[in-house]
Amino acid sequence: DAEITQSPRHKITETGRQVTLACHQTWNHNNMFWYRQDLGHGLRLIHYSYGVHDTNKGEVSDGYSVSRSNTEDLPLTLESAASSQTSVYFCASRPGGSGNEQFFGPGTRLTVL
Amino acid sequence: GQNIDQPTEMTATEGAIVQINCTYQTSGFNGLFWYQQHAGEAPTFLSYNVLDGLEEKGRFSSFLSRSKGYSYLLLKELQMKDSASYLCAVREGGSARQLTFGSGTQLTVLP
Q: Which residues of A touch B41 (CB under 8 A)?
């Protein structure tokens, strides 16, 4: 069955290190998104992509980057991890069409010490 | 930009009906989504409204009034498994495909 996966599911890292979170979907969706979820803030959009080689900044993009070299993957990189980036990260994808919902991956819990 | 408001917490009794409200202010509008999220899990899609009116899907219904910037999610015959966070999300108009989410409403269903 088609699906969307994230890895790792849990990660502990140190301040200043570079971290990459993987997101892989097998639905062949053009649209992919990265969110972070923190208590009191709900889901906030970090970056998104509408297709290969397309990337866009979201509401909270500072300190994060993404690249889209193929349809299936949208890795999220924290260039120099900060304690403020401790959060749960969700990747999502959706097909084209106005009424289609986003499908979310299982999430990655990242702790920056 | 967008501003989306929903109550932080609600409590209801098993078997009852509960209405979760969502108000939004957007520069454009191209649809409103409701998601359910159980603790420690990913959000899952519940409903989509783009035209005014009520959309019914089993025990869950969602209503939209575009002129008032208002939506609600109605849950009937509450079950314990309905205890979760309910997220309201709006898509702007034009070519935008991303969503802006509210902070979510934590619903607790009591026996």
A: 106-107
pLDDT tens digits along B78-110 = 999 999 999 999 998 766 678 899 999 999 999
- Tell me the nearest-neighbour CA distance from B68 into chain A, angstroms: 21
Q: Which two tokens stand for residue A52?
A: 């290969």
**pLDDT per residue as tens digits for the range B4-57:** 999 999 999 999 999 999 999 988 888 999 999 999 999 999 999 999 999 999
**35-64 in chain B: CB under 8 A from chain A:** 41-45, 48, 50
Backbone angles phi, psi at B82, to 5 degrees: -80, -10
Considering only CB atoms, which chain A residues are within 8 Å of B38?
A: none
